[in-house]
Amino acid sequence: MIEKHLLQIVQELSLQPRQVAATAVLLEEGATVPFIARYRKERTGELDEVQIAKIRDRMQELEELDKRRESILASLRERHLLTSELEHKIASAEVLSTLEDLYLPFRPKKRTRATVARERGLEPLADLLWQQLPETNPEAEAAPYIDADKELPDAASVLGGARDILAERINDSAEARGRLRELYLSKGVLKSKVVFDKEKEAAKFQDYFDWSEPVAQCPSHRFLAIRRGETEGMLFSRITPPEDEALATLEHLFVNGSHPAAQQVRLAAHDCFKRLLGFAMEGEARLFFKKKADEEAIRVFAENLRELLLASPLGQKTVLALDPGFRTGCKVALLDPQGKLLLHEVVYPEKGARDRAEAAEVLRSIVSRHRVEAIAIGNGTASRETETFVRALGFPPSVMIVVVSESGASIYSASEVAREEFPDLDLTVRGAVSIGRRLMDPLAELVKIDPKSIGVGQYQHDVDQSALKRSLDDTVVSCVNHVGVELNTASAQLLGYVSGLNSRTAANIVEFRNTHGAFSSREELLKVPGLGPKAFEQAVGFLRIRDGAQPLDASAVHPERYSLVDHMASDLGCSVAELLQNPARRSAIKLDRYITPEVGLPTLQDILKELAKPGRDPRKQFEAFSFSDEAVKIEDLKPGMKLPGIVTNVAAFGAFIDVGVHQDGLAHISQLSDQFVKNPADVLKVGQRVQATVIDVDLERKRISLSLKTNPEIGPSQRRDSRDQRGPRPAPKSSAPQVDWFTAALSRKN
């Protein structure tokens, strides 16, 4: 831990030094983000998971910066190029771009035009021109270098070589790069055009065939859409600043006057921008805005994933799960309250009258004999037809019928996890099992699937994959530990996300449980091979054991505080069990009596909440949802229809809503509320139930436009293209000269 890093993080995150220092120490000791946020509130000043994760990530970034700094210093020392002034500048660099700018003049270079000019002996002339003395006559000074029989036949070629050296010198200037970098980031304009003769193939990118806007104002989804168009070879884009301002910046830094020598430096500066520095800064700007767009897309994905993972669970019920299908039939799986597969069948309710009658008899028999409490129907192909069929069977109201999202179920079906659990079952049966379990406990089932496959993000395949994985893993870990895990029933996949555990220790826990039977206490975890005291400390508070000898094992109270709760009970003259059961006893607890240097009021308040509702599931209570019978396919939709729907994805430009017709509709950001909405996530969450109005249906492109407004305008004019939900707009006026920048890019030379 480096002190200057802590001070920098304090300033960047506006936190107190003690908070950052304490968090850094805990992280270095191996504590996890959920553990620190839940059980070390006094030490961190009650920082939440988001703040702790930011400290962790920034510490890692600064450590990587230091590694690069040391690598550069070592290289310069080895080549005897390090001066005390340069060492001080490198040591003071706070961002990677500044560090690389300082190192650039000393970086080993490929053969360039400047290299060739130096080999021809033109560096002394370049040095003379660089001084920009009023009395210098460039043509006269170039004369001694002319060699009519070789590469320098005249003064123009000599001066051109000298300017190549100056252009590279300007390009290597840390100050010039810093000034132009800021210009590109603040005033750069993003322009895109369709690749010649690709208009038909690139139809889905038609909004960007001739697009222009300030790049700093470009929203994440639009920037990533243009990038995807480039990746697919359909679009070509550039980021350019006002050229006159860029040239003026370089002239201000390097040109002293208007005499002939200064004019040579001016020409070199212009050449540097157009041939070297402009393209370098454009590349950096692309990376900068790509990272910014990635961060926003990843943030949206993580928020949507959190809502999906924390969706209301039905709980431990006997569930009949149906994976619908036309040609291949409807796969049926019966699950007990613990999610164990009891039987499976295939029925064909869509083939004919005889098969339909047989399917009805099979389902009625299973529901009756096994006392089924809920029927889960996947929302894929034939979902609405199957739902209609099941509802017509006349099951009692106590049998809940629920349509369940099966997004990602096919990924699970073909996964190694599913093959290990059901080696002898067909993929479709595994999918039905996953649908049923997803109804019972979405979190426990969804952790078995790669979060990217769940389908609640935007452009997830275009963003930085390592950053995406880190964010989504953090989200899953946060959700799992927020809810808590039943130690005696959890799968290895779910246990692997518990604070302090990993896939190996989780597998060891399951193996130990299978060999020795259910855990009777949390302390037994210490007997699991490979699970040491540190892992136990980090994990145990998030694990639950119901009906054990120690009543606190079912709660989020950490075992390190059991003695404190015993003390509370003893002071009241009762047992811990009585304390859990009797509100009057708990209300008599005076928390200030138990404050110590290690245990403050935040922890004591958490303990009191747990005593009131030990191990309570923080997720909302489950409520059944049904689509309208009025529309079961897209052809049934008519403008003006009002339908119940479920939000399936929230993006920067609006929300996608399932209204039960096998094709999600889009409610553009302008249609989310009667009031102005800046961020869709402020008003909608994934899984939220809404009442949507159909404002337009495009059958040819299978696009549904929806509105959540009270009295929306109906008709095609309200439609928005999901590729760019704000619609095309004219290019902004710019002071930049109108140049053929596509041709310039293609003709780039070193």
Molecular structure report:
Among the domains are: 3-106, RuvA domain 2-like (Arc Repressor Mutant, subunit A), CATH 1.10.10; 113-304, Tex N-terminal region-like; 314-435, YqgF/RNase H-like domain (Nucleotidyltransferase, domain 5), CATH 3.30.420; 634-718, Nucleic acid-binding proteins (OB fold (Dihydrolipoamide Acetyltransferase, E2P)). It is built from 30 helices and 15 strands. Helix 1 crosses helix 2. The strands form four sheets. Strands 6-5-4-7-8 form a five-stranded mixed sheet, sandwiched between helices. It has a five-stranded antiparallel sheet with strand order 13-12-11-14-15. Strands 2-1-3 form a three-stranded antiparallel sheet. Residues 718-750 have low confidence and may be disordered. The protein starts with a helix and ends with a helix. The radius of gyration is 33 Å and the shape is globular. The chain has 750 residues and is of the alpha+beta class. The longest helix has 50 residues, at 260-309.
Which descriptors apply to this entry?
46% helix, 30 helices, Nucleotidyltransferase, domain 5, Arc Repressor Mutant, subunit A
CATH-level-2 architecture of the domain at 113-304: Orthogonal Bundle
Oligomer: single chain
Number of H/I helices: 30
Overall strand count: 15
Structural class: alpha+beta
CATH superfamily of the domain at 113-304: Tex N-terminal region-like
Strand content: 5-15%
Sheet with most strands: strand arrangement = 6-5-4-7-8
Average pLDDT for all residues: 91
Q: C-alpha Rg, in Å? A: 33 Å
Tell me roughly what share of residues is in helical segments: 40-55%
Overall geometric form = globular
**Text of the CATH class of the domain at 113-304:** Mainly Alpha
Low-confidence stretches: 718-750
Query: In the CATH scheme, what's the topology name of the domain at 113-304?
Result: Tex N-terminal region-like
